[in-house]
Amino acid sequence: MNRAIILIILMLSPQLFAEEGFWTFDQPPVDYLKQQYSFELTPEWLDHVQRSSCRLNDGGSGSIVSANGLVLTNYHVGFGQIQKLSTPENDYIANGFIAHSYTDEIPTTDLEIDILYSIENITEQVHQAAAHLTDPTAIKTARDAEIARIEQAANAQGDLVYEVVELYNGSQFKLYGYRRYTDIRLVFAPEMFTAYFGGDLDNYTYPRWSLDFALFRIYENEKPLKAEHFLQWNPEGATNKELVFVSGHPGNTRRLQTVTQMAFDRDYLIPFQLRELQVLRQAVYAYEARGMEQARQARPDHAFVENMLKRVGSWAVGLNDSTIFNQQIRREQALRDFVQTDPALAATYGNLWNDIDQAYSNFETFYKHHFVEDRLFGWKGSLIGKARTIVEWVTEIEKPNEERLEDYRDSNLESLAYEVFSEAPVYAEKEAFLFGERFQFIADELGKDDPFVQTLFEGKPPRDVAQEAILNSRLVDAAYRRELVEGGVAAVEASTDPLIVLARRVVPMLRQYHEQYKNQVKSVIETQGSLLADLMFQQHGSELPPDANFTLRLSFGTVSGYPYNGTVAPYQTTLYGLFDRAYGFNNQFPFQLPQRYREAEEQLNLRTPYNFVLEADVVGGNSGSPVVNREGKLVGLIFDGNIESIISTYIYNAEQGRSVAVHPAIMLEVLDKIYGAPHLVQELLGS
């Protein structure tokens, strides 16, 4: 065999992916685990872990950990819900919360929890809908319509909530069926300063001492859920070098992208995001400075912007590192060379890179407008986002289901209503100030002559537009939002509410940007990206994991420290280290401990493991994922990755990238000896 071809095959071999990746539960790496770890991944094990894992619609993961529907997740995943339940008088963020009985548990305002129950491969059905087409836009339109029909038919059965999941850039499609729960109640949350111990300084670092866990409970028919599947606890946790698994819902990864796509993010998208985040950070700090209540209101915004600045900043550093980026260049070049070894392969796959290159060349001209449509006006938690949603909703609902925008299909309307009509508190002063700064940023980035800028601001100062529209809007009232939607097009067209008027003005342009991205970029990614995935399948088969997309996945690795700063990071930390770090900083922010910790110091077992690190692949969205052992028992709770792991959104870092987890022993220790909750300890241990 030609030596060049041998080299190509070696570069594309399954070992390239080995312990990298987020595996779907219907296509796990059974053979690899058996060969490397002598572990038999059985259908029973998979089914149990799958149905014990859950997805929180706030953007994180969790697990069922008792027969009575107790849900374990991260404090920072539940942070938004805890904030919504807090008031200046009952500040659960600052003081923590514990329910001593079922009657003490507080219903959340708009939290949904999904548990995956079924997976069906529908790839052939979706692909067949566009088999006669060649134009990428027509292919995507036909596939989207077929997906809408499949979801509508499945959801008509009424037993589960179904959604179609795209994998491998459209090379595969699966129908996922979930049990969805909306009666979720808060059971326990520590003080923010213990969950976020070390604050922004320690975020994405290790060694760590973060008590980043919270407990909620699922209710069904006004009673605690009788869980068929739940994870039993192993209080001893995992040992050094032990094989463990992470079952969670990782967010979007971009590892199957081409070099051009990654270069676009590096040169255009990431610098733009960093500029916007810097503006938002300054705005958040300025709003917090207005007073104690404003600082309380802005806590989620503060946490978000600091977290994103570290994450996106690390992406920038990683993608600008020639050693890291050249790794992707070599991988892609090997694949291109392989295509050229066979005329048949070249005829089928030879042009896919050029088509993607052209799509991203087009994207350079309107990516900022896509940001406005997808991010600035796309977040339904804001009043701006709710106004846009209401204006679109009443129009889209009059169309046939398969012709609607995805958010307004029948399969999504229940969740959409739950979010838009939420009774969660709205802080209009905060939104007006923050959006005023973001509006000014968009005006500066796009320029005064941009058609969208002219339409949105009508010649007025951007900050004034945000202030006038938000502070004078009735959309702070959930009943009014519902009234508008139920009144349909006539009610929305007749409304003089300033936010609705603003949304009516810009929604046609937002729809234009949505269609432009769909037709010129997304459709090409799906058609040519699926060809790329097919090509990689020919080399790797089932050894190639799909990119993450906030659906349930399984990753694995061993508990292990790693070299850093000229020394070695230990595989776990202990309570000793928590007090040492607090006293080393004179108990000053962000290393201060609540009084109850200092008072309980002599009663605590200071050898109790606190946090630990493992090699399992995780990214954003995995927060709250359970760490389980070979027996399927819980041995930890994912809450972070170290700074070296952040680039794994694009390129897996096996040498130093580590996931960081809360040890089960520390959760039990503090519940019992600090928070006076032996009833929860007993429930978690199955007593």
Q: What would your notes on this structure say?
A:
- This protein has three domains: 314 residues, Thrombin, subunit H, CATH 2.40.10.120; 64 residues; 272 residues, no CATH class.
- Strands 1, 2, 3, 4, 5, 6, 7, 8, 9, 10 and 11 form an eleven-stranded antiparallel β-sheet that branches. Strands 13-12-18-19-20-17-16 form a seven-stranded antiparallel β-sheet.
- It is globular, with a radius of gyration of 25 Å.
- The chain is α+β, with helices and mostly antiparallel strands and 687 residues long.
Task: Give a concise summary.
The chain is of the alpha+beta class and 687 residues long.
According to DSSP, the number of beta strands is 20
CATH architecture of the largest domain: Beta Barrel
Spans of at least 5 consecutive residues whose pLDDT stays below 50 are: 1-17
Output mean pLDDT: 93
Q: Note the beta-strand portion.
A: 5-15%
User: What fraction, in percent, of the residue positions are helical?
Assistant: 40-55%
The largest pleated sheet is described as: 11 strands, antiparallel
Q: Remind me, CATH topology of the largest domain?
A: Thrombin, subunit H
Structural class designation: alpha+beta
If helices are DSSP runs of H or I spanning 4 or more residues, what is the number of helices?
A: 27
Distance between the termini: 64 Å
| Radius of gyration from the alpha-carbon trace, in angstroms | 25 Å
Features:
Thrombin, subunit H; seven-stranded antiparallel sheet; 3 domains; 27 helices; 687 residues
